[in-house]
Amino acid sequence: MVPPKGRQIMMRIIKPLIFIFIFTFLSVGVFHTTVADDDRDNNRHRNRYRERHRDDDHGRSYLNPVTDPTYKENCGGCHFAYQPELLPSGSWKMILGRLDDHFGESIDLAQQTKSVILSYLDTNAAEYSTANHAAKIMRSLRGQVPIRITKIPYISEKHREVSPGVFQHEAVGSLSNCIACHTTAEKGIYDDDETSIPR
After folding, report:
1. Residue 80 contacts by C-beta under 8 Å, 6 or more apart in sequence?
2. Angle at alpha carbon of residue 129, lines to 182 and 125, rounded to 5°
3. With CB atoms 3.0 to 4.6 Å apart as the test, which of 73, 153, 162, 164 could cross-link to 140 if both were Cys?
4. Residue 63 DSSP class
């Protein structure tokens, strides 16, 4: 049995130790909770950033320039030779399947020429691209298969703030005339920095 005086001494030693133990335990708990909260916040921010910038994971920011000579000669002879990555393969198939009424014109192409063009467009279409713009185009379509590039929601949205009068300008004519404003469109670069709107 511990004498009363010894008990008092022991209590003087134990009380501060208990206090230190409780304080340490609570501090670690609070610290752990704070760190866990910070980790959750960081993960939330990281996920939001990834969501906003997930196209960065997709690859390059530009589209591949048109390289097929048959497509360039036959389609680029009348209008801008659009990069295949601007439309999904289903759209290109529909466009080439309606050459008797190609936006108000009748186009006569030899079957072999048509096959070469379709093969090029189909193989390099938006859904097979590693370009950020193509990924955004595909996401905006939500399964739609438009026959006009100007009807793609992503492209419409990108031009939303452009005054309608710009498209009536003689040098522009319509939204489909990409090279009128996008000075590097032939290289597949549609960055805002490379845009010059005719006045």
Report:
1. 176, 177, 178, 179, 185, 186
2. 80
3. 153
4. P
Are 37 and 45 in contact by the 8 Å Cβ rule? The answer is no
Q: How far apart are CA 81 and CA 189, in angstroms?
A: 14
Question: How far is 145 from 48, CA to CA, in rounded Å?
Answer: 29
Tell me the two tokens of residue 159: 């031009």
CA distances from 173 to 14, 125, 133, 165, 168 (A): 89, 26, 24, 10, 5
Q: Which two tokens stand for residue 91?
A: 């759209």
Helices (H), the chain: 4-52, 54-58, 69-75, 89-96, 111-123, 132-141, 153-158
- Quick check: helix, strand or coil at residue 186? helix
Helix, strand or coil for residue 182?
strand
**pTM summary value:** 0.67
For residue range 109-158, list pLDDT tens digits in order.
999 999 999 999 999 999 999 999 999 999 999 999 999 999 999 999 99
Domain boundaries, given as residue ranges, for the chain: 4-52, 69-194
**Exposed, middle or buried by CB within 10 Å (0-12, 13-18, 19+), for 47?**
exposed
For residues 114 and 102, is the Cβ–Cβ distance under 8 A? no
How many whole angstroms separate alpha carbon 46 and alpha carbon 108?
53
Cα-Cα-Cα-Cα dihedral of 71, 98, 177, 89, to 10°? -60
